Amino acid sequence: MKLQTLILSSVLGLMAGAALAGAPVDVYKSPYCGCCGKWVEHMRAQGFDVKTHDVEDVPGQRKKLGMPDAYGSCHTAKVGNYLIEGHVPAADVQRLLKEKPKAVGLAVPSMPPGSPGMESARPMPYETLLVKADGSTSVFARH
Fold it and tell me: Pairing between strand 82-86 and 75-79?
């Protein structure tokens, strides 16, 4: 009986992980930005169902969605009840969806070389920030 319980919990865990990865993602980006398209490819490769929306005013869209400008990058995405700003790794998004913290979402401000969609021969260390409702942040992950 214990083996059956272990197998069932393992299968359910795998299904939950697949469901998190398959979460719909709406990306608001400039039609002229190539690195945004590379980030979309990264998210799709990790199993997310990504829909893109080309907008002329990315900062305006970011503000409308509720992500503070201080953490701005070249695209803003919405997944579940969260916003994802910039080149956030898919693994961080999966963790966010699993842990469900009270927050606006995640941000990788600017466009750090080596982040997903900004691959580089000279990657730089960067942090993924958890953006809270009051606009403050904490480090969610270091890369």
Answer: antiparallel
With both helix axes pointing from N to C terminus, report the angle between 90-99 and 2-21 in degrees, rounded to the nearest 10: 120
Q: Per residue of the chain (143 residues), give pLDDT as tens.
A: 554 543 444 444 444 444 455 789 999 999 998 999 999 999 999 999 999 999 999 999 999 999 999 999 999 999 999 999 999 999 999 999 999 999 999 999 999 999 999 999 999 999 999 999 999 999 999 99
Q: What is the DSSP letter of 81?
A: T
Structure-token pair, residue 112: 């750090």
- Amino acid, single-letter form, for residue 143: H
The answer to whether 126 touches 45, Cβ cutoff 8 Å, is: no
| Planar angle of CA 56, 41, 17, nearest 5 degrees | 120
Helical spans, DSSP H, in the chain: 2-21, 34-45, 58-65, 90-99
> Which single residue is written with the structure tokens 């709406």?
26
Question: Treating both helix axes as pointing N-terminal to C-terminal, what angle do 34-45 and 90-99 enclose, rounded to 10 degrees?
Answer: 60
